[in-house]
């Protein structure tokens, strides 16, 4: 160690004088700073031949090396050379001399255990790569550490073997060493102490064993350490021999040993019992050490020496554990008795059932799992791509839960996990569909006129928030829409007259809107002008007046002409005028006047008529008498026509009329003319006939023929449709009726017509006892005393009582299953399975809540007709049928007797050879010829008299020399509906520990294909291919995939078309001690593999990359070109080259079950009957359909679902979300490389002087890796230990000069740090490969916060030398979460449940752990957006420049 008050020399001292009082900053030459490079060599090492210990005795030697800052990097290289010479002096081996090493400073650590390396070369390599630790000097702590961690059986220490400890240090310890050293010596460890430079020799003597002159070595400098190697190794060798003799004399033979016969029993998910046969001798106790095979901290159970079993508890489920049992004696411990055992899976819940389903909720119940601490329930829509799963956690007593906030008419998947602490069982899953929202009921139409109407309906529920009313003119194309609150009627205005409208009313809920309630109506004809009057009559004119009939009149058309003549005159009068003076008339002439109204929609009303006679002139004779004018009535009108009466009105100017005579006669001639007299003061008369003629005193007012039919009911409509009933409603006519006849029969005419009669006060009727799913023709006729009206007709249809989405699945040779979409309110389903070939029939009934059923014990290769009848109470619907054919039974090979083994031939007797058969197994061979090849091989091997290692060996390896550097994997396969969505290995090669070495991964959910292997350096590498061309292979059709692997690239060819090529490094070879598997799930655990089903027709490995370019894909019918492809293989019994006649066509396959909605399918290949065109994209939603014959529109059956459109372009990035909640802390990760230097901290306040701190070594800048995905923010890390007080700085008189030197030195070192990184930092990177495959997230991890509280502020003196690179600042706050990536579209099959979060790992120690096993490749996840930069970390404390960091390099 250095002197406590003297700073070490540094590169800064080499370029700056110690005391330059007259040197100013301006006098420094700006670019001429020079550092002399000094190199040291050990000439003494090569001067003499090194001593080698040849004793046959074995030993366990542990070297404890001081790695504090006072040694320095250059001197530490000399320590490595010393250790290398020390190792070379012994015969190192796993059964010979074992050498372990620990390095210490502030805290000790094991660099390698005694049993870490089996050969001397491996130990020497470890010495050469020994990293420099740095820190303080706590020798006593280090001595205690190696006693507890190095000289233990689990660390490779052997019983009854000499134990040697060698300490190498350069200074005095900062803690006590006497007690730890004595503990080591008491444990039988012979200690040697080697001091260098400033080591305290008295302290070395306290540590070392006696005698001191043979166990204590002290040299003045590191450069002469090798001069003591020979003396030290001779003494150690002699000590090993002496200890070995003493051990042999003291230890009686066969009194100690390891336990035997390790057995496990009572295995559960969380524990198992370990038993063994007792070890010999007096065993004080047994230590049972266990840990997960895939990595994890070891645990220990200690039992008394009289016990022979122990229970290991609190284990992880479905995990393989390594077990070691040690017998502990009074002074030693035995070798470990080792074994392994795998815990069982956690018990899962049973009997999961969904019930009480509404449109927004459902209940789930299940059977409790034994020992569960609670349950976690996840539920989400089955086909949604944007809604995340909802998670609910309940206690262990809850087994029934209501799921609320669901969307109506949506299929949900519900998953229940049994929780055992933080660990979850396998899931139980169920699916059900919520009910649809109830629509309004009983649509009624009232207050109909020419431009408006009122719609009325009944509310379906008090949860309705409002209604949306859509209506459209059946003669137009544009619809109108009105939204109202929770009312039950609406008044529609501005309608077209004499028009037919279709209306739909939707109920609006918080969850969405219901199906529509449909109806229709027709507006009336525009009304004619009212109260036509003619006045101001003269001989040449009269005035016509009227009353406005309704709003919207823009013009009146007035026509007049002499009665009975064709010539007429016409005038248009503005709509705001109500009279007109007609001029230029002929006196004493009867005129007919017609008046009609024209409205804003250009419709014209009926004309109202009137008769008026102009006045004549007065004649005077000799007799003084006055002529009397006789006037006729005017403005004769007929209205209020009914089936039995009409009203006549007129005007008359003469007040002296006595009475009016009204004459009327039926135009049919079935009645005589009738007359009625009306008093002169009346101007109206109501008569119960159909036609009349009105006469007054010889002046006539006549109305032409008028006939009114019997009124029929209007606005017939249907509502409340059900499986066996529907409701009729109509509007009654104005005339009183006797009642209504309702006639209905099936529209197909297959059934007889039924009739019922209701009274005149009834306008609605429920028709019962109808057939489900049947259209009915309905007529309603009004009955009068004089006859019946015309029928009002409509077509109504009952609901279809039958299942939907009927399909089959899991079809095997003797069984098949059928599933369907259930019918709401169904009471049971009657299922009939019948074979039309053998009349085999089977019938059973299942409950109304069922949605699937399987049938067993069926006949192979047989067509079955499966029909499902749905029943609601006593009503049964028609059959919904589907056909399916069971698979044919596998062809059994002929049971021909095996060929006779010939006797060994004379020439083959005593022959010894290695015999390898290479057999062509292509399609062109045929089964028959292949049997001949087998008989040939049988006869050939039988001719040899001795087969095996002593005679002839026959090879049967798949890849006896591994894989070549260039090869092509060729596969013809297709994905099945039951293929899981999780990634699986299409093909891979595993080593003997079931760890994958090379393979191809398919991700059915993410639609990606990944190739992985290890390159020639042993690093794991993956390349992932994705896109539309890759996605085609996941759509269920057969595809041929070539994966061509060369030394530089990986190329994917699909269906003889190159779809991707990516660079890779040259591959390393594989082990031949493993296995080759197909369809292995990526999440398989060790030997408990899970398989993914898919259909494979061909698999080849071709030792060339050119095969993919030469292949013609002749196996795919759509790509096969006959002239370029060889003839198809013949049947196994045919040997001729001609093709046989085509076989009979097989029965058509039934429709498959409906899975989750997938992507749009690719175009089908060309079939025998020509290609099938693709389905066009669905058109835009049209307006409501036209009204039926009666003017009423009914809701038709739901249309077939349209194809899903192509995926749209990615939307614009959304706004940044709020920060997410912090995740649980993850397990230990590998430490990153040392970060860049921190900024200089501010100068501290003057405090009391302290001792000088140890210098910090600058860290090498790490290479910038690719940005990884943003992880969740971890919780605050554990509080760091209190920092040591800083040492006192130099005198204030040198502050200015040293500040300048510090800046110049730091700038030069940092600018050239990357250039000399390999020289400055001789710590080789540990070869650790992590098998990380993108897009497969096996476990959520959170970075541990490395920051602890800042140490106590040291007392600043004069500014110190430039400090080492400061530690990285505390991690900034977690960045805002990135935009959620587009979710992959689901494929065929049911969606798997989401797994629960893994338990948080314990906080790590901040040091490199053992290399973990490589992870399995997965799919690449979408990276989130980068988080916001973290806040700047606290500044590092000022340090000074270490002389060993700069010495030896010419910088400038």
Would you write up a description of this structure?
The protein is mainly beta and about 1450 residues long. The N terminus and C terminus are likely disordered.
List keywords for this structure.
1452 residues; 6-stranded mixed sheet; 6-stranded antiparallel sheet; 14 helices; disordered N terminus; disordered C terminus
Strand order across the largest sheet: 3-2-1-4-5-6
**Overall body shape:** elongated
Rg for CA atoms = 51 Å
Mean pLDDT: 74
Strand content: 25-35%
Q: What is the number of strand segments?
A: 72
Spans of at least 5 consecutive residues whose pLDDT stays below 50 are: 1-48, 619-629, 688-707, 1129-1138, 1150-1154, 1186-1197, 1215-1222, 1233-1237, 1251-1261, 1284-1297, 1318-1353, 1358-1371, ...
| Oligomeric form | single chain
The termini sit apart by: 31 Å
- Class computed from helices, strands and strand pairing: mainly beta
Helix content: under 10%
Largest sheet: 6 strands, mixed
Number of helical stretches of at least 4 residues: 14
């Amino acid at each position: 160690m250095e002197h406590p008050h003297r700073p070490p020399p540094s590169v800064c001292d080499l370029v700056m004088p110690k005391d330059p009082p007259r040197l100013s900053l301006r006098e420094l030459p700006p670019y001429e700073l020079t550092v002399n490079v000094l190199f040291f060599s050990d000439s003494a090492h090569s001067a003499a031949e090194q001593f080698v210990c040849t004793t046959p005795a074995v030993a366990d030697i542990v070297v404890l090396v001081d790695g504090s800052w006072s040694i320095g990097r250059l001197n530490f290289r000399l320590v490595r050379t010393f250790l290398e010479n020390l190792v070379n002096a012994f015969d190192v081996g796993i059964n010979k001399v074992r050498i372990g090493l620990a390095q210490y400073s502030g805290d000790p650590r094991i660099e390698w255990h005694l049993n870490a390396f089996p050969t001397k070369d491996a130990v020497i390599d470890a010495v050469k790569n020994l990293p420099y630790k740095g820190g303080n000097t706590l020798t006593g702590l280090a001595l205690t550490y190696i006693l507890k961690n190095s000289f233990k059986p689990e660390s490779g220490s052997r019983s009854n073997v000499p134990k040697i400890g060698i300490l190498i240090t350069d200074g005095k310890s900062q803690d006590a060493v006497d007690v730890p050293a004595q503990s080591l010596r008491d444990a039988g460890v012979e200690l040697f102490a080697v001091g260098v430079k400033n080591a305290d020799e008295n302290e070395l003597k306290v540590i070392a064993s006696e005698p001191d002159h043979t166990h204590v070595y002290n040299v003045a400098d590191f450069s002469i350490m090798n001069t003591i190697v020979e003396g030290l190794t001779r003494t150690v060798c002699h000590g090993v021999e002496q200890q070995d003799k003493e051990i042999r004399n003291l230890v009686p033979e066969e009194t100690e040993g390891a336990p035997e016969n390790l057995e496990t029993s009572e295995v559960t998910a969380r524990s198992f019992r370990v038993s063994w046969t007792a070890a010999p001798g007096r065993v004080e106790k047994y230590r049972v050490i266990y840990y997960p095979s895939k990595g994890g901290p070891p645990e220990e159970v200690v039992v008394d020496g009289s016990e022979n079993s122990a229970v290991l508890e609190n284990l992880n489920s479905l995990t393989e554990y390594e077990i070691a049992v040690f017998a502990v004696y009074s002074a030693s411990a035995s070798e470990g008795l080792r074994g392994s055992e795998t815990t069982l899976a956690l018990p899962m819940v049973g009997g999961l059932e969904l019930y009480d389903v509404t449109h927004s909720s459902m209940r789930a119940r299940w059977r409790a799992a034994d020992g569960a601490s609670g349950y976690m329930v996840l539920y989400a829509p089955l086909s949604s791509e944007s809604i995340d799963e909802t998670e609910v956690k309940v206690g262990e007593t809850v087994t029934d839960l209501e799921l609320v906030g669901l969307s109506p008419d949506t299929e949900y998947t519900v998953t229940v996990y049994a929780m055992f602490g933080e660990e979850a069982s396998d899931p139980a899953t169920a699916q059900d569909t919520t009910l649809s929202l109830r629509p309004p009921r009983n649509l009624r139409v009232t207050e109909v006129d020419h431009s408006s109407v009122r719609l009325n309906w009944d509310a379906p529920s008090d949860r309705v928030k409002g209604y949306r009313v859509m209506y459209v003119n059946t003669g137009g194309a544009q619809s109108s829409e009105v939204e109202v609150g929770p009312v039950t009627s609406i008044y529609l205005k501005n309608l077209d007259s004499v028009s037919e409208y279709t209306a739909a009313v939707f109920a609006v809920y918080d969850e969405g809107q219901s199906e529509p309630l449909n109806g229709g109506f027709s507006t009336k004809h525009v009304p004619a002008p009212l109260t036509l009057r003619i006045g101001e009559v003269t001989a040449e004119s009269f005035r016509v007046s009227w009353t406005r009939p309704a709003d919207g009149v823009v013009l009146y058309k007035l026509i007049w002409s002499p009665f009975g003549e064709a010539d007429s005159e016409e005038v248009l009068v503005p709509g705001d005028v109500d009279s007109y003076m007609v001029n230029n008339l002929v006196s004493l002439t009867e005129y007919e006047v017609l008046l009609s109204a024209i409205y804003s929609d250009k419709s014209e009303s009926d004309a109202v008529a009137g008769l008026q006679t102009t006045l004549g002139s007065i004649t005077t004779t000799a007799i003084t008498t006055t002529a009397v004018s006789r006037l006729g009535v005017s403005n004769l009108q007929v209205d209020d026509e009914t089936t039995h009466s009409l009203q006549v009105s007129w005007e008359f100017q003469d007040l002296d009329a006595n009475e009016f005579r009204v004459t009327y006669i039926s135009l049919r001639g079935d009645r005589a003319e009738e007359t009625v007299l009306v008093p002169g003061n009346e101007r109206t008369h109501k008569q119960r006939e159909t036609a009349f003629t009105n006469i007054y005193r010889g002046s006539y007012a006549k109305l032409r023929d008028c006939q009114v039919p019997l009124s029929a009911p209007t606005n017939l409509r249907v509502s409340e449709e059900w499986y066996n009933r529907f409701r009729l409603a109509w509007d009654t006519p104005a005339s009183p009726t006797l009642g209504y006849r309702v006639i209905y029969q099936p529209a197909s005419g297959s059934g007889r017509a039924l009739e019922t009669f209701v009274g005149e006060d009834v306008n609605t009727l429920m028709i019962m006892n109808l057939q489900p799913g049947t259209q009915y023709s309905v007529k309603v006729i009004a009955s009068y005393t004089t006859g019946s009206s015309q029928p009002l007709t409509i077509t109504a249809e009952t609901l279809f009582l039958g299942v939907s989405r009927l399909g089959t699945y899991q079809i095997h040779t003797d069984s098949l299953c059928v599933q369907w979409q259930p019918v709401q309110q169904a009471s049971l389903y009657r299922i009939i399975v019948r074979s039309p070939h053998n009349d085999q029939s089977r019938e059973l009934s299942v409950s109304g809540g069922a949605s699937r059923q399987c049938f067993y014990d069926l006949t192979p290769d047989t067509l079955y007709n499966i029909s499902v009848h749905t029943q609601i109470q006593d009503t049964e619907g028609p059959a919904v049928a589907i056909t399916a054919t069971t698979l044919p039974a596998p062809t059994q090979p002929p049971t021909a007797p095996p060929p006779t083994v010939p006797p060994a031939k004379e020439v083959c007797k005593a022959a010894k050879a290695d015999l390898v058969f290479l057999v062509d197994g292509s399609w062109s061979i045929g089964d028959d010829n292949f049997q001949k090849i087998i008989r040939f091989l049988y006869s050939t091997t039988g001719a040899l008299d001795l087969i095996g290692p002593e005679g002839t060996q026959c090879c049967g390896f798949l890849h006896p020399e591994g894989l070549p550097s260039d090869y092509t994997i060729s596969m013809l396969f297709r994905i099945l509906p039951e293929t899981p969505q999780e990634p699986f290995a299409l093909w891979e090669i595993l080593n003997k520990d079931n760890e994958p070495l090379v393979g191809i991964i398919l991700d059915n959910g993410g639609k990606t294909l990944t190739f992985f292997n290890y390159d020639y350096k042993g690093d794991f590498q993956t390349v992932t291919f994705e896109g539309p061309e890759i996605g085609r292979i996941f759509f269920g059709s057969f595809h041929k995939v070539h994966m061509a692997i060369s030394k530089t690239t990986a190329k994917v060819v699909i269906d003889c078309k190159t779809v991707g090529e990516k660079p890779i490094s040259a591959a390393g070879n594989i082990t031949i001690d493993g296995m080759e598997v197909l369809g292995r799930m990526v999440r398989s655990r060790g030997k408990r593999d899970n398989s993914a089903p898919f259909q494979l027709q061909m698999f080849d490995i071709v030792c060339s990359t050119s095969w993919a370019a030469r292949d013609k894909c002749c196996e795919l019918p759509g790509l096969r070109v006959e002239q370029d492809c060889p003839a198809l293989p013949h049947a196994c019994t045919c040997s001729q080259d001609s093709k046989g006649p085509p076989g009979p066509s097989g029965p058509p396959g039934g429709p498959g079950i409906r899975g989750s909605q997938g992507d749009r399918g690719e175009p089908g290949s060309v079939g025998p009957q020509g290609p099938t065109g693709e389905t066009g994209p669905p058109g835009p939603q049209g307006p409501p359909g036209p009204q039926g014959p009666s003017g009423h529109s009914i809701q038709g059956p739901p249309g077939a679902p349209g194809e899903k459109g192509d995926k749209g372009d990615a939307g614009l990035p959304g706004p940044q979300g709020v920060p997410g909640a912090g995740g649980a802390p993850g397990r230990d990760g590998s430490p990153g490389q040392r970060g860049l230097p921190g900024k200089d901290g501010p100068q501290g306040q003057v405090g009391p002087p302290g001792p000088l701190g140890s210098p910090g070594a600058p860290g090498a800048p790490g290479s910038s890796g690719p940005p990884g995905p943003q992880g969740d923010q971890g919780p605050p890390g554990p509080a760091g230990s209190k920092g040591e007080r800083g040492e006192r700085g130099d005198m204030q008189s040198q502050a200015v000069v040293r500040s300048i030197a510090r800046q110049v030195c730091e700038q030069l070192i940092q600018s050239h740090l990357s250039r000399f990184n390999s020289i400055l930092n001789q710590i080789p990177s540990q070869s650790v490969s992590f098998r990380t495959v993108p897009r497969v997230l096996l476990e959520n991890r959170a970075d541990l916060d490395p920051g602890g509280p800042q140490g106590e502020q040291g007392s600043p003196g004069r500014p110190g030398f430039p400090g080492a690179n400061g530690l990285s600042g505390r991690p900034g706050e977690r960045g805002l979460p990135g935009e959620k990536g587009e979710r992959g579209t689901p494929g065929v099959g049911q969606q798997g449940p989401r797994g629960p979060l893994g338990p948080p790992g314990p906080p790590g120690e901040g040091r490199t752990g053992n290399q973990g096993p490589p992870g399995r490749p997965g799919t690449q996840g979408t990276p989130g957006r980068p988080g916001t930069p973290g806040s700047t970390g606290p500044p590092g404390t000022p340090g000074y420049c270490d002389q060993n960091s700069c010495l030896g390099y010419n910088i400038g």
